[in-house]
């Protein structure tokens, strides 16, 4: 792996232009124009923010990526999600897609995620995957661990694909953990162990979403004691 300063220079002077060149064919497709129109007119349901947090619909999601810096051309290679309804049982409605990247993926990323090059070659384009994810998560609050990373990654990819930025309502579960359990280690693995959640294979987007969903339901069971009643209360508390 290159030092970060060299990786920045490599991206600015070479890879950024190559990436833009490789994107051009996709930007002239009907699929691109349909997604552009959908994002342009999309209105998120603001009533969700007023709902009791223990009864609201949530989509818990996770991304697997080729790196941590979408500004340097790192890409999404898998999206996993699960829908829950407040503190009720984890839904069987699940979402998992491989996303075919524009640039080659390093072998260390494949080793970490357990994916194969065949998985990615047969994956959806980012346009297809994001469109499907939008449909799956429609009329829910997005939750990720941490959402600050996952939401930024999605929005940076939309910008790179010259699409309107999507800003659905979201909650950062990691920030809630820091507020509610200050004496715990806040890494996902530590919280999974603390709450006795069944450990699934990590760095698999759907598995991580399932474990985060179970953790989030523990959070919802405890959050009332902090005076948090609505989704809007939780978002405001995180930001305070």
Automatic annotation (TrEMBL):
Keyword terms: Exonuclease, Hydrolase, Nuclease
Entries under InterPro entries matching the protein: DnaQ, Ribonucl_H, RNaseH-like_sf, RNaseH_sf
Location of the Exonuclease domain: 57-225
Any one Pfam family match given in the protein's UniProt record, by short name: RNase_T
Protein name: Exonuclease domain-containing protein
Source species taxonomy: Bacteria, Bacillati, Bacillota, Bacilli, Bacillales
């Amino acid at each position: 792996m290159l030092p970060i300063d060299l990786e920045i220079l490599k991206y600015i002077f070479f890879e950024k232009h190559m990436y833009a060149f490789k994107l051009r064919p996709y930007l002239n497709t009907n699929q691109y124009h349909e997604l552009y129109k959908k994002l342009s007119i999309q209105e998120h349901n603001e009533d969700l923010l007023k709902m009791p947090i223990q009864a609201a619909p949530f989509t818990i999601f996770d991304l697997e990526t080729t790196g941590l810096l979408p500004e340097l051309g790192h890409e999404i290679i898998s999206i996993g999600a699960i829908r829950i309804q407040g503190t009720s049982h984890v839904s069987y409605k699940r979402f998992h897609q491989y996303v075919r990247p524009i640039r080659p993926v390093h072998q260390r990323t494949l080793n970490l995620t357990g994916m194969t090059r065949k998985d990615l070659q047969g994956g959806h384009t980012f346009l297809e995957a994001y469109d499907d994810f939008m449909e799956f998560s429609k009329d829910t609050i997005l939750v990720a661990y941490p959402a600050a990373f996952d939401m930024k990654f999605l929005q940076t990819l939309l910008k790179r694909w010259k699409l309107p930025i999507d800003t659905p309502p979201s909650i950062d579960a990691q920030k809630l953990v820091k507020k509610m359990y200050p004496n715990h280690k806040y890494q996902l693995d530590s919280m999974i162990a603390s709450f006795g959640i069944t450990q699934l294979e990590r760095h698999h987007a759907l598995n991580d979403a399932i474990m985060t969903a179970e953790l989030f339901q523990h959070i919802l069971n405890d959050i009332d004691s902090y005076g948090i009643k609505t989704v809007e209360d939780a978002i405001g508390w995180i930001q305070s």
